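[Automated response] Your request has been received and processed.

Submitted sequence:
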Amino acid sequence: MLDPLRNCYGCVVSEEGSVTIPSNLHGIRVWNLEIDTNGQVPLDDLKVVKGGRTGDILILSILNDARDVRVIDNSPDAEGNHLELASTFTLNQRKDKMLLIKRSSSPDVWDEISRSPN
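Generated structure:
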């Protein structure tokens, strides 16, 4: 069962290179995350997405064309949470998108489904 689209506008990349989404909601969810850099710096790295449930879908884009977010392939944090991508990808325009699916929890692993550099 798919829940309605959930939005997070202006989710900020933490100093550790992660964003967190809730995992206490029921059903498989589709998340639309418009992410921003920490401290509004021109470029930030996203290495980990924490939270969510297995099977959740995540659409990543940036909040501001002037601040790029580089989505980093296979750079685990101390708990082993990481992103499994075809390669590192920079979101540098608001219309750029990356689509991920959550494969597992403990550690949190998100797999790339597709990307769209527009």
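Summary generated for your ticket: The first strand starts at residue 6 and ends at 12. Residues 6-115 form a domain with the Jelly Rolls fold (CATH 2.60.120).
If you did not submit this request, please reply to this message.
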